[in-house]
Amino acid sequence: xxxxxxxxxxxxxxxxxxxxxxxxxxxxxxxxxxxxxxxxxxxxxxxxxxxxxxxxxxxxxxxxxxxxxxxxxxxxxxxxxxxxxxxxxxxxxxxxxxxxxxxxxxxxxxxxxxxxxxxxxxxxxxxxxxxxxxxxxxxxxxxxxxxxxxxxxxxxxxxxxxxxxxxxxxxxxxxxxxxxxxxxxxxxxxxxxxxxxxxxxxxxxxxxxxxxxxxxxxxxxxxxxxxxxxxxxxxxxxxxxxxxxxxxxxxxxxxxxxxxxxxxxxxxxxxxxxxxxxxxxxxxxxxxxxxxxxxxxxxxxxxxxxxxxxxxxxxxxxxxxxxxxxxxxxxxxxxxxxxxxxxxxxxxxxxxxxxxxxxxxxxxxxxxxxxxxxxxxxxxxxxxxxxxxxxxxxxxxxxxxxxxxxxxxxxxxxxxxxxxxxxxxxxxxxxxxxxxxxxxxxxxxxxxxxxxxxxxx
Length: 457
Prior knowledge:
Helices cover 40% and strands 13% of the residues. The protein contains 15 helices and eleven strands. The strands form three sheets. It has a seven-stranded mixed β-sheet, sandwiched between helices. A two-stranded antiparallel sheet has the order 3-4. Strands 8-9 form a two-stranded antiparallel ribbon.
């Protein structure tokens, strides 16, 4: 097989640095993806770098397979598709699951981008630019309207910007080719918050709340055009420089589905050689609510009940969803973990759902989902197949939970062999779960880190 495509990707923008040594795994921070073709299309709060995936595949993927497309790489919590895109560039067959419809759409668009009709895309882009010039001169006849179910504390778009947005949505809805229509939708979703009255800091909030002025007027179509041009440039780069030729588009599937519910069924007859994933961390970050604008404005959800379903099916749940429930019962037999949860339940018990009892429910739900995931993983891996799970520790009410160590123990309890627990980042940000009047417990000198738990069937 040729040299990993990541080296040629990086050469497009700047020289690669931080080469791996031996079987080391590089820092997984997603930030690097912002300068890589296709990977850079959609900003995402979570995830890991393409170079990290390269390292994982170099160490754990079947070496020099006669037919790379016969090797199946799985990401059951695919996000916006970093694992899948990079495995595709290595000519492996890829399968992803992602519950969030916006993230699933983004991942699907990215793995099918190298197979798009580029001349047709450029023609659509030219048509979009021509139409947007007409809009600036007062063209009328909008069919789209703002989503009825979407609510925000302040107007999400100013009237001037919303007028442009509705015209953009009209244009996108009229695109006949489904793949190209979804590419335009993903492009719009990736930039829409930048010309809205909200901002990511990193969670979604209002611009005034972050000390920023409202955006009364901005050329939203110019922002979208720039993003679409970037995407077309990346597609052309991949189509002309990716050697050897990639397997067919049919070799790459992204299911907008719950891996817990559909994983075994949809992977039946397709045993997995390598699984690489980073499930939601036990940090209470609200992945669903932070994509509310994209979900509603792209008509991927219509009501609050649609959002609630996504929240309830999400790996690990959310503190807000489980804090008031009856005490959660562990589905695992792990004395060390059970002891920490019992200790947590006693902290500030008088606060009820806002104290230790609420947080104990959250932690229990998280590890119940972890064991459930690991059990399904064992069933879908082929004998000798490897899983690499990137997780971070967490500090809840002053108690440190070494999530990587507990994932390793739970893996063994379901019959997987733990090959290694590899530290990959000694210090990371993300202490939102510990720093608020509701969440703060006793002081703890631990720092946040990330590790890769490597398991084998």
